[in-house]
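User: Hey, my collaborator sent me this sequence without any context and asked if I could get a structure. I don't really work with proteins. Can you help?
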Amino acid sequence: MPDRVPRGARVLGQVNAMGKVVYAAAMSHVLYPDYYGKNVGPHGRRMVEELIAVVRDMGRDMLAAKPDALVVIADDHLNVFSFDAIPAMCVRIGRSVQRMVQDDAIEFDQALDGLPLRYPLHEDLANRILEQGLESGFDFAASWSAPLDHAFLSTASTLCGPQPVPPLVPFWVNCFIAPQPTARRCFAAGRHIA
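Assistant: No problem. I've predicted the 3D structure and written it out in structure-token form, which is a compact way to encode the shape of the chain:
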């Protein structure tokens, strides 16, 4: 795990069969060299390519720990939820999840092009996080149909490289629209997930 967490990082954790965190990491979810090449220039492209190499090394360590699940905590970019209902925190439940497909994808989501259309979910762990969270006083929302954008899949696919992505437990935190969960509440939710 890197000594410092970069600004704008996303936290990822894995759980083995006993419910023990076997690896944790935090990273940017914008791992797309073409975006940085276009908007920052050659220096930006090189920086993100170097970051991708570090994330792939992290992924080798993660996969060596043989996680049963990959919990990915990220934000929604108002492309899954809408102003009609924006949950403070949401757990994706079910058996599988589809990646987001957009005809006019923003540059970040073009990083999803060529990735598998469907990923397995760790149904039991997602349900435990949701149900035990409700019993512990969290008002987590649940979604059976929300697709995943680059915030989830750019990180997971970069970590795993050519290896299959472990079953996912996607967890959204509202970072865009007031009212947002407090840092204290997010920390408590992270402890609950762990």
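In plain terms: The first strand starts at residue 10 and ends at 15. You can pass these tokens on to your collaborator as they are.
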